[in-house]
Amino acid sequence: MSQQSGSAEEKRLRKLYRNLNPQDQAALLRFAEFLAASSTPEAEPMVEFPQPENISRPTQESVVKAIKRLVATYPMVDRERLLNETSSLMTAHVIHGKAAVDVIDELEALFGQHYAILKAEFEQRLLANP
After folding, report:
1. Which of 17, 25, 56, 125 has the fewest CB atoms inside 10 Å of its own CB, making it the most exposed?
2. Could you tell me the superkingdom of the organism this chain comes from (predicted)?
């Protein structure tokens, strides 16, 4: 491919990117990162799904700190996938007065469920492409 056609393609890609909404822009970036990582010859395929970090829950914790702890505990879980549910739980705490301990329990369950789904999807792909 010549340098000129590469430049035209890059311009086209930039134009398409600018016309997307922020959520689709993020998806396009994730896909581009996936393609870039998968085309690197020295990158070895992941054969084991990462385990959550072992960050224990303190006895006294705010909902905001719990979210930060859970994000650090489950770095493999896409925050955007959790945004709506996490926001709803935060609203239930701040606006409707739901107890922090109950909200944190639900947040832990939510993050755990998303982790389990990702791990199951990874294992399915691994079995399908040995």
Report:
1. 56
2. Bacteria
